[in-house]
Design a protein that fits this description.
five-stranded antiparallel beta sheet
Length: about 425
C-alpha cells in the first residue's frame, strides 16, 4: 500500500493538470464552457425599463441561478455549456404587478461568450378595457344599457356595470348600477327621470383600478303630454278662437286641456284659461273677455297624472273696439240737399249706438258740427243732407259710434247747385 501511494498522488496531479489544460485550450480556441445571456426588461405598454424584476434560469423544476434587473432594466445571467446542451429556460418571475414570462433557450451554441437576448417586453396587469355598446328600450323612466369587457387587464374583475349622470363623463362617484352574470357582454336596466338627457359609460373594476367605456348620451321620453302651439283662427277686439293638437298623452291619459293666456309672457293655468276636460287630438278654444288693441301671450296646455305640459308660446293682438265705417258719395245733389250714407263694416265687438253722416264747408267734418242721425246697429244706412247753401262746396264723412267711441269713414267732396 505504501508503494502505491506516490503513484496515486501523481496520477491525480496529472489528471488535474490535463483537465486544466483542456479547459484552457477550449477557451483559446473560442469555445466556452459558460456563456453570459444579456437582456433588457421593458413594460409592454409604457416601454419603460423595469427594475428589480427577478430573473432565474431553470432546468425542469430546478432553479439554477437567480439575478435581478437593474435601473436600466438590464440583466446578465451566466449559463454553463452543459445546461445549454440540455435546454433550459430563463424565467421572468411574477411579482405584484407582472406575470411570469418564460424564454426557452434551446438554440444556443456553446461557442459564444455572450448571448444577447435584446429587449424583452413583459406585460403586467392594467385597468380593464371596456366598451359601452348600446342604449335601447328608452322609456320615460328606464333604459337598457349594454357593455362589453374586452380585456380584464390580467387582473380579476371585481365589479362592473354602468355609471351615468346628467353631466358629461360620469364616473363611479356619480350614479351607477351594477351588472351581474356574464362578465364579457352584460346589460342593466337603469331607472331614470322623464324628459331628461343622460350621459352613460360602462365601467369595470379590477385589482389595478377602474376602466371606462366610451360615453353615450340619450334622452328619456317625457311622461307629460306633448302639445302643439295654438293657431289663431278668428280674432276680434274682445275674443279669439284658436286650435291646438295633443300629439301624445304621455304616460297617462289627459284629464284636462285647453289654452291659457295673459298680457305677460309664459302664461299658465294660474292665469285665464279654458278647460275642456278629457281628450286628445285637435281641439278648439275660445278666448273671451279680451281687451281691445291689446297683445296677449297664449300657450296650449294638457294635464295628466304626472303634471301639466305647455306648448311653445304664441302672441295675438286684439283688434280695436272702435267701429269701422265706409262713406257713400253724395248723390241727388240740389241747391239745398243731397243724399249720402254709409256702411258699418265692423262694430268693434260692441253695439253701434249711433250712425250717420257729418258735413261741413271745411275739411274733416265731425259730429261736433252738422251731422245726421240715422239709427243704430250694423249694416248700410242712408242719410239725407238738408239745409245746404247753393253753389257751395261741402265735405262729408260717415260716422259710427259705440261704447268705445266714434269712428269716421273716408271723406268725399261735392258742390251744391
Amino acid at each position: 500500500m505504501r508503494r502505491n501511494k506516490p503513484f496515486i498522488i501523481l496520477f491525480l496531479a496529472i489528471t488535474a493538470l490535463c483537465l486544466s489544460s483542456c479547459i484552457k485550450n477550449l477557451e483559446d480556441e473560442g469555445i466556452y464552457v459558460t456563456t453570459n445571456c444579456h437582456g433588457i426588461l421593458l413594460d409592454q405598454r409604457s416601454q419603460q425599463p423595469l427594475q428589480n424584476i427577478t430573473i432565474v434560469t431553470t432546468n425542469g423544476d430546478i432553479i439554477l441561478r437567480t439575478v435581478y434587473s437593474d435601473s436600466t432594466g438590464s440583466f446578465t445571467i451566466p449559463i454553463s455549456a452543459s445546461q445549454i446542451n440540455s435546454g433550459y429556460y430563463i424565467s421572468i418571475q411574477p411579482d405584484s404587478l407582472y406575470n411570469t414570462l418564460d424564454i426557452l433557450l434551446d438554440n444556443m451554441k456553446p461557442g459564444q461568450q455572450n448571448y444577447e437576448l435584446g429587449s424583452i417586453f413583459i406585460q403586467g396587469p392594467a385597468i380593464p378595457t371596456i366598451t359601452t355598446d348600446t342604449v335601447t328600450d328608452i322609456t320615460p323612466f328606464t333604459a337598457i344599457c349594454v357593455g362589453t369587457i374586452v380585456d380584464n387587464g390580467n387582473s380579476s374583475i371585481t365589479e362592473y356595470g354602468f355609471v351615468y349622470d346628467t353631466l358629461p363623463y360620469p364616473n363611479v362617484n356619480n350614479y351607477k348600477v351594477y351588472a351581474n352574470g356574464d362578465t364579457s357582454t352584460f346589460s342593466s336596466t337603469i331607472e331614470l327621470q322623464p324628459g331628461t338627457t343622460y350621459y352613460i359609460r360602462a365601467y369595470a373594476r379590477n385589482g389595478i383600478g377602474v376602466g371606462y367605456g366610451q360615453q353615450l348620451s340619450f334622452t328619456t321620453l317625457s311622461a307629460l303630454p306633448t302639445i302643439t302651439a295654438p293657431t289663431i283662427a278668428t280674432l276680434s277686439s274682445t275674443s279669439a278662437t284658436c286650435t291646438a293638437t295633443i300629439q301624445n298623452e304621455g304616460s297617462a291619459i289627459v284629464t284636462q286641456h285647453g289654452v291659457c293666456w295673459s298680457t305677460q309672457p309664459n302664461p299658465t293655468t294660474n292665469n285665464s284659461h279654458t278647460e275642456q276636460g278629457y281628450g286628445s287630438g285637435t281641439f278648439t278654444s275660445t278666448l273671451n273677455n279680451l281687451q281691445p288693441s291689446t297683445t296677449y301671450y297664449l300657450r296650449a296646455y294638457a294635464q295628466n297624472s304626472y303634471g301639466t305640459a305647455y306648448s311653445t308660446q304664441r302672441t295675438l293682438t286684439t283688434t280695436s273696439a272702435m267701429p269701422t265705417v265706409s262713406t257713400f258719395p253724395a248723390t241727388s245733389i240740389t241747391s239745398s240737399s243731397a243724399i249720402s250714407g254709409g256702411n258699418i263694416l265692423r262694430d268693434g265687438g260692441l253695439p253701434i249706438l249711433r250712425r250717420g253722416v257729418c258735413f261741413s264747408t271745411s275739411p274733416v267734418p265731425t259730429i261736433e258740427g252738422n251731422h245726421t242721425t240715422d239709427g243704430s246697429g250694423n249694416g248700410q244706412f242712408v242719410s239725407n243732407l238738408t239745409g245746404l247753401l247753393p253753389a257751395t262746396t261741402y265735405y262729408i264723412r260717415a260716422y259710427a259710434t259705440n261704447a268705445a267711441g266714434t269712428a269716421y269713414g273716408e271723406q268725399y267732396i261735392f258742390v251744391t247747385q
